[in-house]
Amino acid sequence: MSSSSASSLSALDARVKAFLDTHRGAWQDLNVPDADGETLHKLILDHGYTRALEIGTSTGHSGIWLAWALGKTGGRLTTFEVDPERHQQALANYKEAGVSDYIDARLGDAHALVPALDGPFDFVFSDADKDWYKSYLIAVWPKVSVGGCYAAHNVTSHTESGITDFLDHLNTLADARTTIDRSTSAGLSISYKVATR
């Protein structure tokens, strides 16, 4: 890594950390808690993922953690939000945190837009409407590369049938290895795609 690249990453670290520290504990409106953001960040870094998809932007907390990591792996995040106000707030938060260059933030209905994506992706984070969790998984899993990861939020904190259907479907996938991270009460399912014979 060149000295200029290292300097840029150091500046990114400082800017994102300052932003997150300033807003710590203030994230509401369907955002992930800090601990889950840290887990998502670590997943990207540990595996060197570069092609990331987020379903459900909210006001951008998880996207900042993801894009911060992608800034180090040379990757980029595509994220979808259906609510115009949350979308605009997320754009402002991305800019303030210094991660806008690593994010393609789209306003629109993920029900229609996500299945139309080409892929491939090596990291997916689902945190949108729970009744559609299974549908998102069915649409995106074939586009996840071997070694890639599909994470979903609120799998223990929410009890609606959509979560149960999602988890049941995960268990039918021969090429998925799933664990549940219970670091927070929300619960984060983490599924890696493996090669099958």
Strand tally, please? 7
Helix content: 40-55%
Q: How far apart are the first and last residues' alpha carbons, in Å?
A: 38 Å
CATH class: Alpha Beta
Strand content: 15-25%
CATH topology: Rossmann fold
Judging from the principal axes of the Cα atoms, what is the shape? globular
Question: Which structural class best describes the helix and strand composition?
Answer: alpha/beta
Low-pLDDT regions: none
C-alpha Rg (nearest Å):
16 Å
Give the total of domains: 1
**Spatial strand sequence of the major β-sheet:** 3-2-1-4-5-7-6
Task: Describe the 3D structure.
With about 200 residues, the protein is an alpha/beta fold. It has a single domain (about 5-195), classed as 3-Layer(aba) Sandwich (Rossmann fold), CATH 3.40.50. About 45% of the residues lie in helices and about 20% in strands. The protein has seven helices and seven strands. It has helices spanning about 5-25, 35-45, 60-75, 85-95, 110-115, 135-140, 160-170, and strands at about 50-55, 75-80, 105, 120-125, 145-155, 175-180, 190-195. It has a seven-stranded mixed beta sheet, sandwiched between helices. It is globular. About 40% of the residues are buried. The model has no long low-confidence stretch (mean pLDDT about 90).
Provide the fold topology.
Layout: H1 3-23, H2 34-47, E1 51-55, H3 61-73, E2 76-81, H4 84-97, E3 103-107, H5 110-113, E4 121-126, H6 133-140, E5 144-153, H7 161-170, E6 176-181, E7 188-193
Parallel strand pairs: 1-2, 1-4, 2-3, 4-5
Antiparallel strand pairs: 5-7, 6-7
